[in-house]
Design brief:
single chain; mainly alpha; two-stranded antiparallel ribbon; 2 strands; elongated
Length: about 110
């Protein structure tokens, strides 16, 4: 008899999920990088037009850079996991691991 919920997933399917997460995280990082660059340029232009404008009032580029860095780190983590899967194995995942992979949400309803 099996007690509780167990989530078994083949390494091939897990590899596909991880590749999807790598692609998504990389794309988000690229978008944040692009927005950070645009924000920095806009702030620079606005600073030229309004001399007494406070330096940090509208410049969110550093926050956007941080978000890009976070997503690049996530992509690296997913890539590491994908590269270290054991071929033709079955992985038993916890609810927390399913949540990390974006398969489930972190709250019960």
């Amino acid at each position: 008899m099996i007690e509780g919920l167990h989530f078994d997933i083949q390494s091939t399917e897990l590899s596909e999920i991880l590749q999807t997460r790598i692609d998504q995280a990389t794309k988000k990082a690229d978008l944040y990088d692009e927005q950070a660059k645009k924000q920095a340029e806009l702030t620079k232009e606005m600073g030229k037009e309004i001399e007494d404008m406070p330096k940090m009032s509208s410049d969110q580029s550093s926050n956007l850079d941080k978000k890009a860095h976070e997503y690049r780190q996530k992509a690296k983590e997913y890539k590491f996991l994908k590269e270290h899967l054991i071929k033709d194995e079955v992985y038993r995942l916890t609810r927390q691991e399913l949540n990390f992979l974006g398969i489930t949400k972190d709250r019960y309803y």
